[in-house]
Predict the structure.
Amino acid sequence: MIAELKMPRLDEDMVEGTVTRWLKKEGERVQKGEALIEIETQKVNFQIEAPASGTLLMILAREGDLVPINGILGVIGEPGEDLSPYRLLAEKKEKGSDVQDLPAPRPHPTAEKKGRIFISPVARKLAEEMGLDLSQIRGTGPEGRITKEDVLAFQSAGEEKTSKARRQILEVLPLSGIRKTIADRMTESWRQAPRAENYLSADVSRFVEMRSLLGKEWEDRQGIQPTFNDLVVAVTARALRAFPRVNSSLQDGRIEIYKEIHISIAVALEDGLIAPVVREADQKNIFAIARETRRLTELVRRGMHTLDALSGSTFTITNLGRFGVEFFVPILNPPESAILAVGAIEKRPVVIQEAIAIRSMVRLCLAYDHRVLDGALAARFLLQIKKGLENCEGFFSSGSEGGSKEG
């Protein structure tokens, strides 16, 4: 009995998946529940298990193919099964993907008759100056006479062709999987949300000093040294607790303010960004946040994350500081109402009590949906984050700021 292996729906936003790797070859035996194929969806990499035991009789979707939900990936059964319907399906698919031969283009008529070229004197002079072959120019004047405009058009077409020839394509990549998801979501965000931004600089010299002096002690006592990004998560979680309107989204004409604070942290991969979620971040102290971010980051970079690890965020933090980016403006992660961008920590001269001092500074940008948040509220929220970063000592005390829940 034949069992069809189909592209599953893994979440409500999924419409298609990309085949990345088959773990079995045609003709090999498989066991029910055995990992058979790897796919890449809009949010996650996933292994599909064999729905039945038998032989992988036929593979219909090759590596790199984009397959819609419920599309047939392969067929499992016993040798001798009737595969004619699937061969027909494969033939139709193959024909649909082939480039059809186009009829050869008909040659353009020229203004040449019995060895004579009809061309206006002005056009002839212009063509000679440009070094053009008159026999290749199509005339549009009376009786096919070549005009000045014909010469100019021919020259322009030649320049465009030469320009295209100079642009050699190194590689063509399909817009699929993670990259397609990012493209779709960012386009949706840009079109739908009237976005505004607020900017601030924060003096984080105290954190830099503390990590230098106490990092080894943190490692010995807690088993981990929190990074600056961990501090940003802890401080932001506290600020969201103080300004719950920021922890919201616009859904079906209603502003939904969330009770839980789930912060997604952007992790850079070769194909784009993946944002795993630190759940109930306001209930975790900074050391618990540090452990959770390490765990999530490692899962994402190994491709072992689940859909649950990526879903349910209420606010996003994106930090390009480790790449040396001093400042950038982020795009909202729909349907969230705000996102915080964090730049690199830089040594900069600042004025402190009428004197110039060198301090460790960081630039922050809060982008927000102006339909949900007004500028004054966004400014107060961002100022709260600035104060938390500049006065961070309390976040490293046992059981303080942001709770002490470890899970």
Observations:
- The two ends are 47 Å apart (CA to CA).
- Residues 97-114, 403-407 have pLDDT under 50 and may be disordered.
- Residues 3-93 form a domain with the OB fold (Dihydrolipoamide Acetyltransferase, E2P) fold (CATH 2.40.50.100).
- The CA atoms of residues 4 and 75 lie 5 Å apart.
